[in-house]
Fold this protein.
Amino acid sequence: MDVLISAADKAALKQCGRWFVEQEKLKHFFPTFQLLGGGGSVSKCRGSLATNWDNTYAVELSQLEDFPYSQPLAFVADIKPTPHMYRAGNICYMNPQAWHPERCTLAFVVGKIAIYLNKYEVYIRNGQWPGVEE
């Protein structure tokens, strides 16, 4: 069962450094996002993002057990399929070849998802994906 990171877990995360920094960055840039897990381990991250058209989407990042060495999967609730979505339902928010564990944070990932969602809304309106595709 997923639970919010407890005070005891925060102390354990602080010792490992990376998760503490990730949590602080999310709190600053995307305050609706929270790390989920238990026992000092993080398995998911959930929050919501609003678009330029004032629509709000629930977002979940999963497969964080090997983060930052592997790119998280991103799922957005209640969106229609697009050419930029995998069969499993996760979205393609960035080219996996561009992933770099020392430069990519969860806040960076959430920012990329925010861009994706605004492009998604343009796509839904006119049928064409706007801008550069990664």
